Amino acid sequence: MTTTAVDTTEVRLLLEGIHERYGFDFRDYAEASIRRRILRRVQAEGLATISALQERVLHDTECMERLLLSLTVHVTAMYRDPLFFKVFRDKVVPLLRTYPFIRIWHAGCSTGEEVYSTAIVLEEEGVYDRCRIYATDLSESVLRAAKAGIFTLHHMKEYSENYLQAGGTRSLSHYYTASYERAIFRENLRRNVVFAQHNLVTDSSFNEFNVILCRNVMIYFNRTLQNRVHGLLYQSLGRLGVLGLGRKESMRFTPHEESYEELDGPEKIYRKVI
């Protein structure tokens, strides 16, 4: 048996063990990506094999939390892809004004930068008081960071530029306090946000939403898992609700492709029509 074959077997056994012990299902994540992340965790833990990592993970919940952070991708930024938020402001917010109450789901919210970005847009457009944002992620650690709303100050120049490109009407600094190299966002921005753990792979729908933002999450899934998650998002989105995906993601070739119309093709914003 070659080393690659051994690795493949060990990865499969590790993922099966995680699913059985903790309920997290990574078995349909993109194979090459998940293997790289596991091997980096093996090295970080000072271990020699994936099997050794499996033994530690199954008996040590703190090791499992470290592995969970390694397996899930948390690359994010405020107003990431500024044009997406400009289109959201110009094309989606006018639709939201027609609702007496608006439910928004940020699925895979990571450390919360895009949640705060959305809250600011809604605040500036005068609709935030009738919104409830549900911000969910697999990892409790990143959710704690998201709820705190504290980000590194040296990112704020980039975020401020993104904010203006996204159509911001004030200065981003209006929304945070600078202290000891940290930007602490106003607690008032969290008044209508619920942070909660949710697993897109194994958990079911928990509400009906007017908007779902699931951006740059499914690029790490294989086709089977992408289709499963698309089914969950479709089930969770009300008729005429809006779905926002990442730039490298698309509704094409998914089971629900015909159920949506494009609100903005380049920015991957869709409206459920069936």
Overall 3D shape: globular
CATH topology term of the largest domain: Rossmann fold
State the major sheet.
7 strands, mixed
Helix content: 40-55%
Q: Low-confidence stretches at least 5 residues in length (pLDDT < 50)?
A: none
Assign the CATH architecture of the largest domain: 3-Layer(aba) Sandwich
In CATH terms, the superfamily of the largest domain is Vaccinia Virus protein VP39
* Name of the CATH class of the largest domain: Alpha Beta
Sheet with the most strands: spatial strand order: 6-2-1-7-8-10-9
Count of individual domains: 2
Strand proportion, as a percent range, falls in 15-25%
User: What is the helix/strand order?
Assistant: HHHHHEHEHEHEEEEHEEE
Distance between the termini: 50 Å
- Cα Rg: 20 Å
Give the number of helices: 9
Can you walk me through this structure?
With 274 residues, the chain is α/β, with parallel strands linked by helices. The protein has two domains: 3-71, no CATH class; 82-272, Vaccinia Virus protein VP39 (Rossmann fold), CATH 3.40.50.150. The chain has nine helices and ten strands. Helix 1 (3-22) packs parallel to helix 3 (50-59) and helix 2 packs across helix 4 (61-71). The protein is globular, with a radius of gyration of 20 Å. The termini are far apart.
